[in-house]
Amino acid sequence: MATATHLRSNIDVYPTRLAKPGQIEPRPHPVVWGRADGPLKGAALQGYDERGYHVRRSVLAPSEIESVLSEVDAVTCRLGDDQRVIREPSSGDVRSVFAVHQLSDLVAEICDRDELAGVARQILGDDVYIHQCRVNLKPGFAGGPFYWHSDFETWHAEDGMPAPRALSVSLALTPNFEFNGPLMIVPGSHRRFIPCVGATPDGYHKQSLESYRPPFGTPEEADVAALADELGIDLVTGPAGSALYFDSNCLHASAGNISPYPRSNLFVVFNARSNALVEPFAGTAPRPGYLADRG
Ligand code: 6CS
Ligand code: FE
């Protein structure tokens, strides 16, 4: 737990975007912030605390999955070339659609359910709000990879998120097979902070979201290798309707998808109200609200 001094003197306890490679540091904050009762029970909560993630099946019913997929289609058509739609540089297929919860009442209602917002309140030990909501479509045949990263490192540096008191829920809208680019997570990596090298350019988000391996906010290969050697790599697969809850600071990635089967997931990021965004720690201008809700 960070000492009171750290918290009061607003020293940045997660320094990153450094001029030269730094050291992997232990996380000074807790993972499970609350002990109140909630949707996750003993072993599930323990597993999340230790590994940094937990998987629950059948959180969405098949009929709901179909409705969400058609809502996403309708929203994507409506948005056209809006900046909330990110396309695959390789094929022009849609790669991600942001702020879906603000464009679909059904998605907003799902986010608010006990199995999503309720789990976030339990783990984060606070009221929560949606920091970011997106669908990563990862289409068949040309779905691009997402290189190794910690979401919190980006949200800290580029959005001003003070501490990793945030979590993502990834809802599988199509089956996540071993062969269509499922999420890979280094179990336990959420307890290590990997500083990244390189000062963040202004307006960088336009480039980073399309990049398969972003030039900034990406950990050094030696650090990824060291943590993978020590902790291993878990492949998170599961049927459509499954939910993956993962800590904002997990080291994760996903390979490309050249199978015929899309790997489309709805990601909802909950942040603790007490962890509301401040000025970006990278010293850059805050990113747009569809990437980081500034309330
Ligand atoms: O920059 C972000 O906020 C987004 N980038 C990645 C690779 N994961 C988290 C989030 O969608
Ligand atoms: Fe990510």
Describe the 3D structure.
- Strand 3 (85-87) and strand 4 form a beta hairpin.
- The chain is globular and about 45 Å long.
- The longest helix is centred in the N-terminal third of the chain and has 18 residues, at 62-79.
- It has one domain: Jelly Rolls (Sandwich), CATH 2.60.120.
- The chain is an alpha+beta fold.
- The strands form three sheets. A seven-stranded antiparallel beta sheet has the order 2-11-7-13-5-4-3. A four-stranded antiparallel beta sheet has the order 6-12-8-10.
- 25% of the residues lie in helices and 20% in strands.
- The protein has helices at residues 4-8, 42-51, 62-79, 105-111, 114-124, 151-159, 205-208, 221-231, and strands at 25-26, 53-56, 85-87, 94-98, 128-136, 146-150, 166-172, 183-185, 192-193, 234-236, 243-247, 251-254, 265-272.
- The chain contains eight helices and 13 strands.
Tell me the β content. Answer: 15-25%
Major sheet, described briefly? 7 strands, antiparallel
Major beta sheet, strand line-up: 2-11-7-13-5-4-3
What is the name of the CATH architecture?
Sandwich
User: What percent of the residues sit in helical stretches (DSSP H or I)?
Assistant: 25-40%
Q: What is the fold named in CATH at topology level?
A: Jelly Rolls
**Cofactors, ions and other ligands in the entry:** ligand 6CS, fe (iii) ion
Computed structural class: alpha+beta
Ends distance? 27 Å
What is the radius of gyration?
A: 18 Å
- List low-confidence stretches: 1-6
The general outline is globular
For the secondary structure, the number of strands is: 13
Q: Report the top-level CATH class.
A: Mainly Beta
Q: Mean of residue pLDDT? A: 95
Determine the CATH superfamily. Answer: q2cbj1_9rhob like domain
How many domains comprise the coordinates?
A: 1
User: What is the H/E order?
Assistant: HEHEHEEHHEEHEEEHHEEEE
Q: Number of helical runs?
A: 8
